[in-house]
Specification:
about 280 residues, two-stranded antiparallel ribbon, 8 helices
């Protein structure tokens, strides 16, 4: 897959940031292909432990947990909050294990990235944003608030590195990844929203110093790219230097093929630490 690095990319960056920043950047990826449906079909869901959590607001969340492969006594590990799309809504504690979630359990990935991967299942939507429109933005549900309480509880009760907690997801899960640090600004070290809908402009102040890597296909008609572009531009205009945008030219509402094995983005994610 070839990156487009041409003068137009610099024009796009200028439009995103409003001024020059060392880290804020916008890439346009040509020739984007969707991820194969069977890419992680060999993963046994049984690798993810099954549990249930009841939040203080009454939300009951089934969840799956993938533990570090070879945990060492006294070592604290990163925690990845993996958020599912609307197709995973339910209570069977299974449907939330989408391709992105299962990719963490692929043998080479699990050996390379020692971490807890927590995959809650939402009985209702985790993020709400209505039909596509030019002024679209996402809002959290009560269940997303419950999931953040789950993260804090799990981190207290297990050897989690509190400076390395991350959130990512696709579609509704990408929208929830955007929203999570607006609800808990001091909890996350980085987020990676994929093909989601960004929250409203007032969130920019809460997100401007957080490492964020946004990924979205520009042919997406289900979750159009415009909300992500809007908030990313505003964050950069406010001086945010830790936001990056990876735009997939011609890709519709699908996971992009280079997410797996995806060492490039996983290495970036695990390099982020919260002060």
């Amino acid at each position: 897959m070839k990156k487009l690095v041409l003068p137009m990319a610099f024009v796009v960056l200028a439009a995103l940031s409003g001024c020059a920043h060392d880290k804020a950047r916008h890439e346009v990826i040509k020739g984007a292909a969707p991820m194969a449906r069977d890419v992680v079909s060999s993963v046994d869901p049984g690798l993810f432990g099954q549990k249930k959590f009841t939040a203080s607001n009454g939300t009951v969340l089934p969840y799956r947990i993938l533990a570090p492969l070879n945990p060492e006594p006294g070592v604290r590990y990163p925690l990845v909050l993996q958020l599912h799309g609307s197709g995973g809504i339910g209570t069977d504690n299974l449907r939330q294990l989408d391709r992105l979630a299962k990719s963490w359990a692929m043998p080479e990935i699990r050996a390379r990235y020692q971490a807890y991967v927590l995959v809650p299942q939402f009985p209702i939507r985790s993020a709400n944003y209505g039909p596509p429109s030019p002024d679209q933005y996402a809002e959290p549900s009560a269940d997303l608030i419950g999931a953040l309480e789950l993260i804090e509880t799990f981190a207290r009760e297990n050897p989690v590195d509190g400076a390395r907690i991350y959130a990512l997801g696709f579609s509704m899960g990408g929208s929830a990844a955007w929203l999570a640090p607006t609800l808990k600004p001091k909890l996350f070290a980085a987020i990676m929203p994929v093909s989601g809908i960004a929250p409203g402009n007032t969130s920019a102040a809460l997100l401007q110093d957080l490492p964020i890597w946004v990924m979205h296909g520009n042919a997406d008609t289900e979750n159009p790219i415009f909300a992500d572009l809007r908030l990313s531009k505003l964050i950069a205009q406010r001086g945010g230097q830790a936001i990056s945008f990876r735009e997939y030219d011609g890709l519709d509402h699908q996971l992009h093929a280079d997410l797996y094995p995806g060492h490039w983005w996983r290495d970036w994610l695990f390099a982020q630490h919260r002060d």
